[in-house]
Amino acid sequence: MALPAPLRASVTPTELELIASEQLVEIVPLVAMERTAFISGAYGPLRPPSKCKVPIWMATNLKLKKKCRIVPPDWLNVEFLEERLVQETTGESFSEMPFRFAEVAKVLIDTAPDDFPNPDKIRSLLKDIREARQAKSREGLSKLDHSELSLPNLCSMEINEIRPFFIRAMGVLIDIIKDAQPQQDIA
């Protein structure tokens, strides 16, 4: 969702991708490596052809060096995404997706398209899902009232997109409520 510059006081999509890069993903290493300690934790040992879980940042680094193959997460396939798209376009509520699905999908597919069956179809489905969810998000914000905001299954990117608008709108709503309350005279 594109927001005007004054409302873009939030984390950028690139920063969200960096945060999401701490999530673990399965890889099939192509080289052997002993258990290695990093600030964020120790990972390995890597023993081809056994699968291993490592953070996305490490998987993408190894992939770019042609030292591993990334195993797509269970949810990042055409069948699952087609099902979610149907739910998004026919249902009123947001379908359940991983909290950082947009960021994880972008990083993995941009880095390792050859590890995904039909990456172009996956990209297209992800784009359609994001557009359907953005439309629901805009519709939900137009029906906003002061007593409750309920948008279950919103993901991190979507929360980040509406956060500046929501904060500003709540500030205006609070000002309106304050102005509407009668002033008590202190005698």
Automatic annotation (TrEMBL):
Keyword Chloroplast assigned: no
Domain GINS subunit: 75-169
GO CC annotation: GINS complex
Keyword terms: Chromosome partition, DNA replication, Nucleus
Keyword Nucleus: yes
InterPro entries, A to Z: GINS_A, GINS_bundle-like_dom_sf, GINS_Psf2, PSF2_N
Localization per Swiss-Prot or TrEMBL: Nucleus
Subunit and partners: Component of the GINS complex.
Record-given protein name: DNA replication complex GINS protein PSF2
Organism for this UniProt entry: Ceriporiopsis subvermispora (strain B)
